[in-house]
Structure formats: structure tokens, C-alpha cells
Amino acid sequence: MLTTADFSTYAQWAGIATLAFGALSGLAFLLKWGIRFRLVGVTGFMAVLTVGLFSLGLVPFTRTVIPGAVRFSTVFDSGAAQAVIVVPPTITESELTATLQQAASDLFSMGRLGRGEDQLTIRARTVLHPEPGVSQPLLLGQIKRSLSVREDENMAIELFPENLAKLPVSPAGTPAKL
User: Fold this and answer.
1) Number of structural domains, the chain?
2) What is the number of other CB atoms lying within 10 angstroms of the CB of residue 55?
3) Nearest 5°: phi and psi at 108?
């Protein structure tokens, strides 16, 4: 993953290229070259590119990592106030809690539209296969978080123990690895 230092380096090189194209554009106007207006366009584009790279060099890229979270896939996201993730059927209760918190962090965006709601609801589900050729979706829990506050201290996690009890269990008492 690119870091802010990488973008700062790219911005420096893009700035040098912008100055070079600017000088070339000035020379083209002095010598009345036919491509002088195209060079002005290239110089303007390079200036915009340089400013963009410079701004990416200022903003730190951070991703919160919640310990104990397992990998999940987003299977539905309305872009507003609802999303659904799928987790493996081997998940434990503590892993589910951590995974819901991780999903709440990953799916947060200031650009989400509430459409009358002020909370993002993320539901976690898994798919069980009770017999060959039969798939049964199973809702395991949900988390509700603020749509407007990145560091939401009032996230509400709700687990569904009756559905967690339906997960396959190995003889040792932990969820079975399928």
C-alpha cells in the first residue's frame, strides 16, 4: 500500500515535470510552435495532478485493525444506512463481535446518505448447508453505528444466540472447521 511519503515523492517529481512543461510551453510561445496551446493544456493537467498528489501526501492513510476479527465479504451495501457481510460458519461469538466492529470501521464513510436515519446498520450472516444441495442463510448479529461520527463510542452490537447455537460444533466444543 502506498504511504504518504510515496505520494510526497510522486508530488515532487510531478512538480518538476510541471515546471519542465511550463518552460517548454513558454519556449513554444516564443518560437510560435503549432503545438503551443496543447503544451499549455498538458502543463495545466500536470499542475492539477501535482496538487492532487501533494494533497495525498498530507493526508495519512490509516486503517483500524480490530484484534480477533476474521475475514468477511460485503454482500450488500445500499450506500446509505444498511449493509450485510458474510462470515464463515466456523466463527465464534468473540470473533463475530470483533468482526462486526471491524466491518463498522471499514464501511464507515462520510458520504453515506442517511435518508432519514442517523445510523448505519451492518448485519452479519453465514450460509449453512444442512444437506447436499440445500443452502440456508443464517443471520448471526448486527451492529449499529453513527453515520456522522468516525470514532463512535456508542456502537450497539446485537448477537443472535439462537442462531449462533445452530452453527456446526466440533467434538471439542468449538465451531467445526468445514
Assistant:
1) 2
2) 11
3) -70, 135
Same domain, 79 and 124: yes
SS (H, E, C) 49-86: HHHHHHHHHHCCCCCCCCCCCCCCEEEEECCCCEEEEE
**Number of other residues whose CB lies within 10 A of the CB of residue 85:** 24
Q: Which residues pair with 20 in a beta bridge?
A: none
Domain range for 147 is 73-164
Cα distance between the two ends of the chain: 32
Supply the pTM of this predicted model.
0.66
164, with CB counted inside 10 A (0-12, 13-18, 19+), is middle
| Same domain for 80 and 54 | no
Q: Which helix (H) or strand (E) holds 119?
A: strand 119-131
Closest to 85 in 3D by CA, of 98, 95, 71: 71
* 48-86 confidence digits (pLDDT tens): 999 999 998 887 677 789 999 999 999 999 888 899 999
pLDDT tens readout for residues 15-60? 999 999 999 999 999 999 999 999 999 999 999 999 999 998 887 6
